[in-house]
Amino acid sequence: MSRNFLTIALPKGKLLEESVRLLVAAGINCAAIDEDSRKLLFEFPEEEVRCIICRPTDIPTYVEYGAADLGFVGKDTIIEENKNVAELLDLKFGYCRFVVAVPEEDLPPNPAEFDLRALNHKRVATKFPRVAQSFFADKGMQVGVIKLHGNIELAPRVGLAEMIVDIVSTGKTLRQNRLKEVEQILEATTRLIANRVSYRMKYQRIQSLQDKLRELLTEEGC
Amino acid sequence: MKRSALGLQVPVGTEDILPRNQAFSRTLEQGILGLFAAWAYQEVSTPTLEYGSAISPQPDKEDLLYKFFDREGRVLALRPELTTPIARMVGTRLRHEPVPLRLCYAADVFRLQKAPARREFRQAGVELLGSSSAVADAEIIALAVDTLKLVGVKDFQINLGHIEIFRGLIADLGLNRETCAVVEGCLARKDFVALELTLAKTKLTAEQISLVLSVPTFHGGEEVLARVEKLAQSQRTLAALANLRQVYQALGLFGVQAQVAIDLGVLRGFDYYTGIVFEGYAPDLGFPLCEGGRYDDLLGNFGYACPATGFAINLEHLVKVLELPEYEAAQVFVAGGDQASVINKAASLRQQGLRVQIALEAMTGPEAEAYAKARGIKRVEFV
Q1: Bridge partner residues of B261 (DSSP)
Q2: Between B194, B263, B284, which is nearest A200 by CB?
């Protein structure tokens, strides 16, 4: 395969449309990507590009092994997957936050008086065990992590855990489940990641794409 | 007793190597060790097990070591690489030998990496100890190039950087120690987003920040160095640049400059490298084929201040980019009615240097022909 050919891994779901828009704006004509078609592989030979559509959590793996040269993926996934990839650029979209939340009724009358240390050695339900574990470890705390695959908000309601660590964008789900954010862990946006060998071998192509994306983001005032 | 399902498997990250692959790996390795010998590197071997005290990095850091206890309760670990064990060996047993000392090895190493990465794999490498000259670094790089050529990697490139250039530039900016540590961590993880955010929180100007961030994009021939020289302020950075220039020029003397690009994006975090660093890449292989560089402080850990440089090749990755040759069958099949004459005939053929297989039971001529044909053995001796 040519030294210039790029395989780009794009996340299916809500980040796909914006990822494709940015790529097109950066001069890679891949507008034909259509999630509804259920195709997972889109070839653009005239652009020397092919795009693969993956589950977001798998993207760091594709990139680490060099099955994809580049990937568009949320910082939340990068942290949780902890793969050896180069993180090149903050693409600014897909903003979300990692927070610790507890049931409203467990908060003192004045929520400002809440002390996180009350959660020491308690159980936390999360889709992101690594993020949760390292956040509490950095605070010198220990918690029991329960890994769940969805509907995390349910766990404290039925006594499976005393708190949750999850991603919030608007906070609506938390409110609906009478959970209250007590601490923000980190903010996340979509990132451009690269395989560490591709990043050096296909350096010119990747660098120019990265520069164009950076310019675009500046123009758009992000 | 029939084994359980687990008893039929090998541990995660390990693999049985079947005859065809093993024959290939063995040939490759012998070729590589032969080349190292032609450059006057002497082969050494160190224990598979070392004390944790000899090879562990900082006590609190996550490492990839397989660890055990010995009878006295001391921590033992399987070696994750050979450079540190060889530094220990030289520091304790070869320190009175005249330098430069040229040593090489081919050995299995063990790392508790995440599946499906290999946890047991083979490395071949060289260490050139006792010289801080640029020619020593160039010899190592030239030998890496020769090795990849010898084994027949068709398309590869070596990217050459210098650990002190980026560190020096960061130091020139007068950042505090804490920030420097964070910056180093970002570089180790190749996290340029966090690097930018970290720098943005300092008192640096936007111009200074974009300069720093542009350094890893410097890539090419000697002209790259001139561009960085304009940014450098301290003796430290300038010395690093001058050193990289000398090494690159020396590569010209070895005739391997065409295969090597200067690339200030070859970055390392907390490890033992102190000077030039390089990585060898092949297309469509997501991992470096070989890695190396200068490590002038490591032997000091073993009480022997001695500059050193070296590289290691990952043989598992190497095999992936090469074409596996056909399995070589026996050259002669010896069969007949009388076992004694079969065995004697085979022995005399082997003395001529042939690969010879005997029939384990009496056979007729046509049976022997059919057997040999089925196994791809070209010559049949019927006695």
Answers
A1: B159
A2: B263
Q: Which residues of B294-325 are buried (b: 16+ CB within 10 A; e: fewer)?
A: bbbebbeebebebbbbbbbbbbbbbbebeeee
Coil, helix or strand for B198? Answer: helix
| Residue B61 at interface with chain A, using a CB cutoff of 8 Å | no
Chain B residue numbers with beta carbons less than 8 Å from the beta carbon of A87 are 189-194
- Chain B residue whose CA is closest to A92: B193
Pick from A64, A203, A204: which is nearest to B286 by CB? A64
- Residues of chain B in contact with residue A197, where contact means CB-CB under 8 angstroms, are 281, 285-288
Beta partners for residue B356, in sequence order: B332
| Amino acid code (one letter) for A6 | L
Where in chain A are the domains? 6-94+189-219, 96-188
* C-alpha torsion angle, residues A64, A69, A73, A75 (rounded to 10): 50
The interface residues of chain A toward chain B in range 62-81, judged by CB-CB distance below 8 A, are: 64-67, 75
CATH number attached to the domain at A96-188: 3.40.190.10
Q: What is the CATH number of domain B12-321?
A: 3.30.930.10
Q: Each residue of A8-30: pLDDT tens digit?
A: 999 998 889 999 999 999 999 88
Burial class of residue A72, CB neighbours in 10 A (0-12, 13-18, 19+):
buried
Can you tell me the distance from the alpha carbon of B210 to that of B215, in angstroms, rounded to the nearest whole number? 9
H helices of B94-222, where?
A: 134-150, 163-172, 177-189, 192-200, 206-214
The CATH code for residues A6-94+189-219 is 3.40.190.10
Kindly provide the ipTM of the predicted complex, given to two decimals.
Answer: 0.82
Query: For the whole prediction, is pTM greater than 0.90?
Result: no
pLDDT per position as a tens digit, B136-154: 999 999 999 999 999 999 8
